[in-house]
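Thread amino acids onto this structure.
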């Protein structure tokens, strides 16, 4: 459960950071879309964790099986593609 709790905290923190950014006008929509998508994923992790803490692992298993096609993930991916197409470096400088 610790790993799920850490993941949801990180996701919520990152969503809040993105939502608080003031990007250029052409990047505002995609940035907002990424923040909202990450928040939705964080909320799904929270729900799965809470169920798992009660001994019900069905939501967690469903989350794991469907994460790659989750609508929030699809919106995040699409927004990232928009930013890349606008020539923004979304990958950063790397590790």
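Threaded sequence (95 positions):
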């Amino acid at each position: 459960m610790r790993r799920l709790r850490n993941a949801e905290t990180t996701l919520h923190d990152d969503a809040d950071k993105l939502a608080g950014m003031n990007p250029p006008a052409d990047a505002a929509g995609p940035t907002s879309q990424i923040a909202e998508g990450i928040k939705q994923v964080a909320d799904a992790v929270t729900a799965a964790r809470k169920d798992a803490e009660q001994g019900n692992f069905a939501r967690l298993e469903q989350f794991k099986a469907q994460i790659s096609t989750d609508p929030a993930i699809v919106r995040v991916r699409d927004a990232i593609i928009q930013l890349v197409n606008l020539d923004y470096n979304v990958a950063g400088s790397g590790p």
